Amino acid sequence: MKPVKATNENIQKAADIIRKGGTIAFPTETVYGLGADGLNPTAVAKIFEIKKRPSFNPLILHIDDKLKLHNICEVNDERIFKLTNKFWPGPLTLVLPKKNIVPEIVTADNPTVAVRMPNNQIALELIKNAGVPIAAPSANLFNRLSPTKASHVYNQLNDKVDMILDGGNTEVGVESTIIEVTQENIFLLRPGGIAKEEIEELINCKVEVKQKSRDPNSPGQLPFHYSPNTPLRFITNIDLETLLEKKVGAMFLEKQTVEFPFSVIKILSTKGDLREAAANLFSMLHQLDSQNLDIILVEPIAEEGLGLAMMDRLRKATANFS
Ligand code: TXA
Ligand code: MG
Predict the structure, then answer these.
(1) How far is the CA of 93 from the centre of ligand 1 (A)?
(2) pTM score
């Protein structure tokens, strides 16, 4: 089914579908999610089926109210209150010890569950009306780019999902930051919409970057996640002379910094604003990927704040081809 406008009526219909065990693609402030009733294991299984994931990977539960965190996980740490007070609703996901009510298929049998409260009115209304936490990964096929607008979802999932709610472009454009809070430490599992430095400043402690090998279940951690179909390379790692006969696309942060007869050029933010750049990252990669280019070259971005998240995505997208 084609995306439908996220009117109150359609949100009600979507909530009904969720309650009946169906799947809904919906906007969040980061990327579009592919949602199902997070307490219904069969409904959750549909998500994996639709995404064509080769394994069961843990999903994020989305809630509409901070207090509902207590229903699904153990919260006995004042750092959690500080974090949810400051960053929820928003692009921060907390990984915490799960309660029994959460089905194993949601957590891939992990003793922990990932939870967040999205900062998007359509998502919040949908969750509230559904009356259950909504399990949702990004609404893309396994190893494909995350969708930042309804048409991206439709191009990848089309009639496999029961309804696609169209809420326009997502604002943040990269997925949420995921942290695991244990008694001793706070680990960064995935950089995203909230910078590690902001978290460290709030709770006054170091956030450790978790080793990749410690979390083999995580699709965001596989080196070939987020790959476009067209070969993608960092512009700094290639001899441009060898590409003179080819159709070459390029993506720069602020302005074209390399002279070459590119077929297409994308600028992430003419102001050099990392937020605007992050919001454009996926959609510009999608645009470049759809132009039948021989290769896409991307400019590396300084790894500070959101730049870290963007480089994480770009490294994964180039890993297949370098
Ligand atoms: O911004 C976002 O987080 C988007 C929107 C839709 O909310 N969702 C999203 O979900 O990116 P997904 O499934 O594409 O990525 C969730 C990540 C995965 O890398 C998964 O392995 C990790 O969260 N994750 C989930 N539960 C976990 C757990 N218990 N322990 C460690 N990692 C976990
Ligand atoms: Mg994803």
Answers:
(1) 8
(2) 0.79
